[in-house]
Design a protein that fits this description.
This protein is of the alpha+beta class and about 500 residues long. The chain has 16 helices and 23 strands. A seven-stranded mixed sheet has the order 17-18-16-15-21-22-23, sandwiched between helices. A six-stranded mixed sheet has the order 3-2-1-5-14-13, sandwiched between helices. About 55% of the residues are buried. Keywords: ATP-binding, Kinase, Nucleotide-binding, Transferase. This is ATP:glycerol 3-phosphotransferase.
């Protein structure tokens, strides 16, 4: 008997996955390929886009082979991807011509700071964010201006530009469309949210040529025909959505007031406002107003705050220092104590994003004494992440103008009971962890792709397949919570003040 499924592709910063998602919301036949990033100098974070597509195709082929073995018909394809990572490629050779700029990159922060006074208010009002610390358009413009090979390709009409969604769609489809979905366009920093269009004035001010702008598409729509030599048969690609937005849907956050925290390379906190635009955009510099997803001509909005290096900070302690084997061993050691006993960790390896944005603030671990144990350090690592989650949630509420009654958690390290309990205690909000959170982005992209009637009649029906999960209630009193938060704020304020003085 033949079953049906959507093939979901999740191209993240540290790896790319392909999997099947059934009408019951079950994720199966997951195939993963690891990806690496490179930082040749401070502020620069790059990846090989050619390797990204190669490994993505390898993962797809492994999953389609398993689909054939299990007699599963793939009826559609969904894509979710790391956002604001940019690629320049040659349409004749099909190859990326320079390393991709990863979303963690801050090489252009000084230039963006120079134009902030002229552009920030305009961008916050229309695009939901300030100039920020990165710009794919500025990055591409610099390559065209300073790299003779790239300039020649542009002059000959062979150059294309896009974020990872566009890079994947171009490579995977017969039609070779150059597109950017609404969620990916908004994350790139020059997207008019209400009009669903580019802010061409700002893009031109950055020196980016308008003829290279990808076509804006909805997150759910027909994007092209998947190539038979990759998928085994021609199959429609029906969705392309940023990874955090896909995770929101995959965790069941599709209604106004739903909140989510996902831990991956960084920790992202999102709050959905639905079709209502957030009431206080720009109130906090690092809290962004976004298109949560767009389908059938309607945008659903969200606000987002994040800390860029939490999962990658754990990796740093494990791989560079060798203090722990992996993130779950950190959780295991942390569960052996009830506090950090004075040890404090600030997970800001590439700068701070909340409550302010300052790329100069660096990570730190302090309070270590001769009595400090490995368990104390592990607890401090989790505690540092939980502090930033609380701060992010508070900023989201301020900007959105609404408050959640609980937070759904996801991502690999959300498997840590200790971390999720600390998050509940420090935020004062219940934390709900559903099963299969590590596959939330895969599931969410498939839910979106299939919610136009292919598998489900709307997102509400799709997310009804999810289990209720485990609820972590706050155990800490409000006075203790506020005292801990106040101590943390003072420490962060000192860190920010020190970098400003220097």
């Amino acid at each position: 008997m033949t079953s049906t499924a959507i093939l979901s592709i999740d191209e993240g910063t540290t790896g790319t996955r392909a999997a099947l998602v059934s009408p019951e919301g079950k994720v199966s036949c997951v195939n993963y390929r690891r990806l690496s990033s490179h930082s040749p100098r401070s502020g620069v974070v790059e990846q090989d886009a050619n390797t990204i597509i190669e490994e993505t195709i390898n993962a797809i082929r492994a999953t389609t082979a398993q689909a054939k073995e299990t007699n599963t018909e793939i009826v559609g394809v969904a894509i979710t991807n790391q956002r604001a990572t940019a690629v320049l490629w040659d349409v004749q050779t099909g190859m990326a011509v320079v390393p991709a700029m990863v979303w963690q990159d801050t090489r252009h922060v000084e230039k963006l700071e120079q134009i902030a006074d002229s552009w920030d208010q305009e961008l916050i009002q229309h695009c939901g964010r300030s100039t920020g610390v990165r710009s794919p358009y500025l990055w591409a413009a610099q390559h065209i201006r300073e790299n003779p090979e790239v300039a020649a390709l542009h002059q000959s009409g062979r150059l294309r530009f896009g974020t990872i969604d566009g890079w994947l769609v171009w490579n995977l489809t017969k039609e070779r469309r150059c597109v950017a979905s609404a969620t990916n366009a908004t994350s790139s920093g020059a997207f008019r949210l209400r009009e669903n269009s580019y802010h061409t004035g700002y893009i031109e001010a950055l020196g980016f040529p308008a003829d290279l702008l990808p076509e804006i598409v909805e997150d759910r729509q027909w994007l092209g025909t998947g190539r038979a030599e990759i998928f085994g048969t021609e199959v429609p690609i029906l969705a392309a959505i940023g990874d955090q937005h896909a995770a929101m849907i995959g965790l069941g956050c599709v209604e106004n007031g739903k909140a989510m925290v996902v831990h991956g390379t960084g920790s992202f906190c999102d709050l959905i406002t639905g079709t209502s635009f957030p009431s206080n955009p720009g109130k906090h510099e690092g809290t962004l107003t976004l298109t949560g997803w767009r389908a059938d001509g309607v945008s659903s909005y969200s606000v987002e705050s994040h800390t860029a290096t939490t999962g990658s900070a754990f990796d740093w302690f494990c791989e560079r220092l060798g203090w722990f084997e992996n993130a779950m061993q950190i959780s295991d050691f942390a569960s052996r104590t009830d506090s950090s006993h004075g040890v404090l960790f600030i997970p800001t390896l590439t700068g701070i994003r909340v409550p302010v944005v300052d790329h100069r603030v660096r990570a730190g671990i302090t309070g270590i004494s001769t009595a400090t144990t490995k368990a104390d350090v592990a607890y401090a690592l989790l505690e540092g992440v939980a502090h930033f989650v609380r701060s992010s949630l508070e900023c989201n509420v301020d900007v959105a103008g609404i408050e959640p009654n609980e937070v759904v958690v996801g991502g690999g390290v959300s498997a840590s009971d200790t971390l999720i309990q600390i998050q509940a205690d420090y935020s004062g909000l219940p934390m709900r962890r559903r099963s299969g959170t590590a596959e939330a982005s895969l599931r969410g992209a498939a839910f979106l792709a299939g919610s136009g009637g292919l598998m489900w009649d709307g997102l509400g029906e799709a997310v009804s397949t999810l289990d209720k999960g485990q609820l972590f209630e706050p155990r800490m009193g409000s006075d203790q919570r506020e005292s801990i938060a106040a101590t943390w704020r003072r420490r962060i304020d000192r860190e920010i003040a020190e970098v400003k003085e220097n």
